[in-house]
Design brief:
The structure is a single chain. By secondary structure, the protein is mainly α. It is 59% helix and 3% strand. Mean pLDDT is 76; it is low at 7-15 and 19-26.
């Protein structure tokens, strides 16, 4: 039998202090509620906000998954904050697909909520991707000296 090719894994590491502080005391649901209040309306203004199967609650569930994958909140199962860029990208892509597929069919507050969540998560993903690249570059630079590169020992 042939072996399955190994999937290249995205580096998973503990988020830095800045990432943790950004979301330290705020779950996605609290963040959504705070943003709604800043916009001048209460969570009750969202269509079906008190229905557990509402679109708003569905969005916050998806956003929570993305936030946990991006280290913005503790993972629900493990209680630990870790960064898994591949999983985070998946959930961000799911939210982007939902925005595309629901275009023109959402209540104004639902659209604002989806746009805001997606924008915040995309910015977090980009920041973490850049931080990962910088960390990998720094690790690679430590492995080689100028003498190694020039072939002198």
């Amino acid at each position: 039998e042939t072996e399955k090719p190994k999937k290249e894994e995205t580096p998973i590491y503990e988020p830095n202090q800045e990432t943790v502080e950004t979301y330290n005391n705020a779950s996605v649901e609290k963040q959504v509620q705070a943003e709604a209040e800043e916009e001048g309306f209460e969570m009750e203004d969202f269509p079906g906000a008190d229905d557990p199967a509402s679109f708003v609650n569905f969005l916050t569930t998806l956003a929570s998954q993305a936030a946990a994958a991006l280290g913005a909140m503790p993972h629900p199962a493990t209680g630990q904050r870790t960064v898994d860029l591949e999983t985070g990208k998946y959930w961000v892509d799911v939210l982007a697909m939902l925005r595309e597929k629901t275009e023109g069919n959402l209540h104004a507050q639902e659209k604002r909520l989806l746009d805001g969540l997606l924008s915040d998560l995309q910015m977090q993903f980009v920041a973490l991707t850049r931080a990962t690249e910088e960390k990998l570059k720094a690790q690679a630079a430590q492995k080689f000296s100028a003498q190694d590169i020039l072939g002198k020992k």
